[in-house]
């Protein structure tokens, strides 16, 4: 009876497990030998085929007016491999940009491009750094390369040449926005009749307000807040309050009919006109007999910098002396001309240029940093010879700081330069110019190049100096090795002495142990004798 029950039970399980291919491992076998497939495998009755991803169809039949591009397997641009559930996409529909943007850009969808780089002008949120939301059907289906600066083309493989405004095109102006406003007539009006706002920081290269009469500027407020009026400014009440910057009158002078001139802060600018040719334009005079101060003292609370002037002098409207900006080579502290020819100048970094040499009558010439560079004519020493007291004479300063690079010329990028195709080794002219400016050549178009033949002697001298340094370092190293070897020998001798001392002490310990043992036996004998006597 038990055997019959087991056979019936086995037969029952055989009937339940008779689903096709046992549901291929992707489903459950149910009644009537029917598979209930997992959600991604409900394609074939035996659950052996997997669904492919669905996306917005590139082309399909419209279901209603203006209703199309429904979800479709592989977006109707590929063949589904149901054994793996993977789409074999048609060429150009692989969700990748051409050549992966050649390593010079980012592959973005249209939706991402709109957010990242679309016009940031939506009402109410303009200027928040986020572009418009692009919601058309292809927003996530189409992608494009957003190339790095200096590269272009569909796959960012084209390296662009430098570009700028064409000097041959004239009569072009900046973009102008014209605003028409209504009059604010409310009795309790507390707002702004006109509010002009930009996201750009204050600067003088644009205008906030610009008024013209018959194409002639009559009034403007530039981006820094400076007001320019073509026919003067009349103040009927409250006077003129200047809280910073002072007042500068460039023409017509200033006439004060009452109250005199009181300068409470910010100082005063004094201009003299009509003086004789031999007169001194401005004299700063200290009349006190015990005067110990400065006849002229220029002082600022701002730290030293090249962006302002401590002193500014002009001759015939030409700047000849300036110290308001921090140290830099893009301006001159002193500039002297004779018949329109520069004879002497001190630029903003302190560099002195003299057209006819410099004569030092006393004190000598001391160079504390930067060394001495002679680009032509050499050095002639008439007396006293040449003496180098401290760091030596180096004629190759800067060579060891040069950075060799490998670059690729491409004739198709800038054909007008006739560059040869290929990869070459060399240096970057701008970097060399900072260290060895006299080795740089500049052509008529402003292109810089390195005069490699002139660089060769500097490199050879650098190698010689390095060789000398290596020899000196080797000599010092050998001396140190000898000293260390002698010290090591001394330590070894001391070690042997300590080992001998340890052996001697061990023998003494053994002798002491023998003596202690002898004393113990003697004590035992005495103890036995005492016991026997008792």
Question: What does this entry show, briefly?
Answer:
This protein has 534 residues and is α+β, with helices and mostly antiparallel strands. 21% of the residues lie in helices and 18% in strands.
List keywords for this structure.
534 residues, alpha+beta, three-stranded antiparallel beta sheet, 4 helices, 21% helix
Describe this entry's structure for a reader:
- This protein is α+β, with helices and mostly antiparallel strands and 534 residues long.
- Among the domains are: 104-159, no CATH class; 202-231, no CATH class; 303-359, no CATH class; 399-509, no CATH class.
- 21% of the residues lie in helices and 18% in strands.
- The protein has helices at residues 2-16, 110-117, 429-435, 452-533, and strands at residues 27-29, 35-37, 54-56, 71-73, 78-81, 86-89, 105-109, 143-147, 151-152, 158-159, 207-213, 216-222, 227-229, 309-315, 318-324, 332-338, 341-347, 352-354, 405-409, 422-426, 440-442, 448-450.
- The strands form 10 sheets. Strands 11-12-13 form a 3-stranded antiparallel beta sheet, with no helix packed on it. Strands 16-17-18 form a 3-stranded antiparallel beta sheet, with no helix packed on it. Strands 1-2 form a two-stranded antiparallel ribbon.
- Strand 11 and strand 12 form a beta hairpin.
- The termini are far apart.
- Mean pLDDT is 75; it is low at 1-16, 257-262, 271-286, 320-324 and 384-395.
């Amino acid at each position: 009876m038990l055997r019959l029950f087991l056979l019936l039970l086995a037969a029952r399980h055989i009937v339940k497990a008779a689903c096709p291919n046992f549901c291929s491992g992707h489903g459950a076998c149910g009644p009537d030998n029917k598979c209930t497939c997992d959600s991604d495998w409900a394609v074939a009755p035996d659950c052996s085929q997997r669904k492919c991803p669905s996306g917005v169809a590139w082309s399909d039949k419209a279901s209603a007016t203006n209703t199309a591009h429904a979800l479709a397997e592989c977006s109707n641009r590929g063949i589904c491999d149901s054994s793996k559930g993977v789409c074999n996409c048609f060429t150009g529909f692989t969700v990748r940009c051409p050549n992966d943007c050649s390593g010079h850009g980012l592959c973005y969808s249209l939706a991402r491009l709109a957010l990242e780089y679309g016009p940031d002008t939506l009402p109410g949120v303009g200027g928040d750094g986020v572009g418009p939301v692009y919601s058309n059907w292809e927003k996530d289906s189409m992608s494009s390369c957003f190339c790095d600066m200096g590269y272009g083309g569909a796959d960012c493989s084209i390296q662009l040449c430098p570009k700028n405004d064409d000097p041959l095109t004239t009569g072009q102006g900046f973009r102008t926005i014209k605003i028409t406003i209504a009059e604010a007539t409310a009795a309790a009006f507390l707002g702004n009749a006109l509010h002009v706002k930009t996201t750009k920081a204050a600067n003088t290269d644009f205008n906030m307000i610009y008024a013209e009469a018959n194409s002639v500027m009559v009034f403007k407020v530039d981006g820094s807040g400076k007001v320019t009026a073509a026919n003067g400014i009349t103040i009927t009440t409250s006077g003129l309050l200047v809280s910073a910057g002072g007042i500068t009158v460039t023409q017509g002078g200033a006439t004060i009919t009452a109250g005199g001139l009181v300068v409470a802060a910010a100082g005063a600018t004094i201009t003299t006109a009509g003086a004789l040719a031999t007169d001194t334009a401005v004299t700063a005079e200290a009349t006190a007999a015990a005067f110990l101060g400065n006849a002229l003292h220029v002082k600022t609370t701002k730290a030293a910098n090249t962006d302002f002037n401590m002193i500014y002098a002009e001759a015939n409207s030409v700047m000849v002396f300036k110290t308001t900006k921090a140290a830099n080579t893009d301006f001159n502290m002193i500039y002297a001309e004779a018949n329109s020819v520069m004879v002497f100048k001190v630029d903003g970094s302190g560099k002195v240029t003299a057209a006819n040499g410099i004569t030092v009558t006393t004190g000598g010439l001391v160079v504390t940093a930067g060394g001495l560079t002679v680009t032509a004519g050499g050095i002639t020493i008439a007396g006293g010879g040449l003496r180098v007291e401290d760091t030596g004479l180096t004629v190759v300063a800067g060579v060891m700081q040069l950075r060799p690079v490998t670059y690729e010329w491409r004739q198709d990028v800038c054909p007008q330069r006739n560059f040869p195709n290929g990869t070459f080794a060399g240096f970057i002219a701008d970097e060399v110019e900072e260290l060895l400016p006299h080795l740089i050549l500049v052509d008529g178009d402003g292109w810089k190049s390195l005069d490699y033949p002139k660089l060769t002697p500097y490199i050879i001298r650098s190698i010689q100096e390095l060789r000398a340094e290596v020899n000196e370092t080797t000599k010092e190293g050998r001396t140190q090795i000898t000293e260390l070897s002698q010290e090591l020998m001394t330590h070894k001798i001391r070690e042997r002495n300590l080992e001998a001392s340890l052996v001697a002490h061990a023998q003494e310990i053994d002798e002491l142990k023998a003596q202690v043992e002898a004393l113990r036996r003697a004590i035992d004998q005495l103890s036995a004798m005492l016991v026997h006597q008792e």
